[in-house]
């Protein structure tokens, strides 16, 4: 299974394949075949993804309280309301801070683990499994372990027990926002759940780095260690890093499960999805404002992703088309 | 979704409901004159939605009552998530909406046509209900829900712990704060009011001498007394005397029973569990007054049955509500006193409820009558959430209470404007 | 991507081969390396330890004043207690999760791989536009479509059904994207040879492409299965009745229930994780290789 470089193929899909390939008039035209392959998926996508999105778009221009089939058109009122709503705008800030922190941290931890595991000679599979295993655990299960045991605010929580040995008072990790310990809880849970997966990506990439580069560097007098890491390993991992960061960003702004399960009834530490859920889609049932907020969020996400793509060059193969 | 198809549905549903009613046997005033037809109502399926009560046996009880009903096949959805409101609200938008459900009286459900008018069920027995329960379910002279249980909420305290620390039962918020400080020892915290403190939101308003909305449905909670109360709550929150981060919220007595705290805010429903765990070593007292002009208060929460106005079986659902929550006194008493303790809203049934006549239960009933405040139907879920944010912002976080209340005002006024113009 | 690597090597990444010495350099001695890895591993194992400890303890020991390293008496009875609990039909929720995750996996692989292949390989002048339409869905947060989707599915009468749990989730833009990226890198020569032999795209796909991509399919299957098993929000709203709950919904219900019975919720969590741990330990080799080929490495 050769993984010839991905890089020289991407843009070509359509362009290269079309010219002059002797086709023997079998099985209809390529166009038909194309729809045969993609049809089932696209129909499903239209019904279960695009239709609801359009419905949301429509709702966002209506006063839709307690109903999803409203009749009172309000223009951009919902958008104005959401953009002037301190909580919603604040949650966009929260999300930015959260993403700015969790993305590099997860990136660094996964890379660190990959470097460690990659150098092991014995028990390599064992350690890799240990770091990888949390990937199998759901956010719900992890939230439960974190909230009910590790960071439980009472005396039998693990962290409080450990601190208790040093005479430190119990800390209400998730309840008291000063100091904001809740970030520690959320970040550790997320790191635990995510790092293993990205570590695997990095291990794969590390093994793709040709040995010759290190040998050549050694001949040139580069010191093994930070120098080779900085001048060889890191640049060689560029493509993987880009992909990992993109995936982490997607994951960060889709954050919901653990915030929802760990932080209840707060006005802080709410990513936009949670904010929308509570403010509009949940109890107040303001579907118009909720949809407007969701669309604002979507535009923001697209902008961030495209920006990141521009900066780091992800998907350039596709764009060059 | 054309209007015409909806009309068809409606007509068919009316027919079906009428048949259901006929089978019920003409109990209702508008019962079909066809008398008892074939079918015996076996065709009518009703779904009811309940939040999960914590007390053992409650789910079985609700299902048992439903089974005893002969005129429709009633299935129960028992929602264990603490997000009951969201679940209920989203379900109400769909075809799979429950035909009847329990909730609190909130006017937006009336205004948006989600709940059916139940006046004809309640009217004949209106005088037997606690007048406050009628008032809190009435909009423009129509009654929209049938109260099942009243749940007064107040403080529970460990007698032995208070004695040991030489603390009297507090009568002001300041005394409560002092008591919490004195009762806090290494492993035991003085006071527990829930992790988010939201269970005392309402009592804080009342004990400060204010109310949520006034007669004209304008904001009445934004007073100096409430601001003072919030400041005191903030001091309490940062004092280290509060139990925080407990595994169960304040509606569950576990923290109190496990000895994690000396005083806990909880509801009357918890009394049997507390009695089991602590014997007689406990008592109750209302939320003390916050300011000199304030008064102690008790939150008379509770749950009521509502009928989904958009259900295909409105009449059959109403019939079931009438059968169970108006006619079946025995079940109503069982529901109120056999699992957790609740006060039956019907005077005749409350009078028979012997379990509530002695000891702490009797004391609870006394507090309910003397200091109790009921839900204001104009105070909706969105306003509730907005005021919870005040607590979150100014008590748990260090925002200036005035500023937090201003933000709340904006949100509440937006709601009020939509509801009352 | 400017510093494109001279990827001269032809061999597949073999994650299981021992590391070549010297890689990354001698910042750390071998002992130091093992100590660092060991400490990290211990930290990663703590949650699993807590899970097992609490699942097999009594509540009194879990909430006791002093931390018990391990339960004095191992409470195997907690397992039967969990399964005999009446309010939450736990065995049923496990079965539901198994059915949902399995069918979800089969469906996703089928639908998304075909689409991914079509987008990657079949010449069609608007293919790129279609691809962007797919890619665009990745950016839309679930909450946007959550309520309308629910209303849609409910008006189809799919609430409380396997259909409702499974079908709306089959059309994953992300999985389709990954398949496309993978197929872009699939050696063209193989397909061309197949088509020389008179196979159309369809025949070449099934006879040549799929059989030569089993590693990747296995990896995607594992990831999809995990996602299906761990999904929370959608099953939460679709599963109105406990009989159609998945195990995640059951877990959440334990967490938010009015009464918290510690040993039960931890036992439930442990059991809910167990099947995936097995899947992982057995499929790890393919998973690692497959992930290496997802194409997301650039």
Automatic annotation (TrEMBL), chain A:
Residues 1-25 are annotated as: Disordered. The keyword Transmembrane helix applies. GO terms for biological process: transmembrane transport. It is found in: Cell membrane. Gene3D superfamilies: MetI-like (1.10.3720.10). Its main location: membrane. It is a multi-pass membrane protein. Keywords: Cell membrane, Membrane, Transmembrane, Transmembrane helix, Transport. The chain crosses the membrane at residues 32-58, 92-118, 125-146, 181-206, 237-256, 287-307. InterPro entries: ABC_transporter_permease, MetI-like, MetI-like_sf. GO terms for cellular component: plasma membrane. It comes from the Bacteria. Residues 92-308 form the ABC transmembrane type-1 domain. Signal peptide: none annotated. Belongs to the binding-protein-dependent transport system permease family. This is Sugar ABC transporter permease.
From TrEMBL, chain B:
It comes from the Bacteria. SUPFAM superfamilies: Periplasmic binding protein-like II. It holds the Pfam family SBP_bac_1. Gene3D superfamilies: Periplasmic binding protein-like II. This is Sugar ABC transporter substrate-binding protein. The lineage of its organism: Bacteria, Bacillati, Actinomycetota, Actinomycetes, Kitasatosporales.
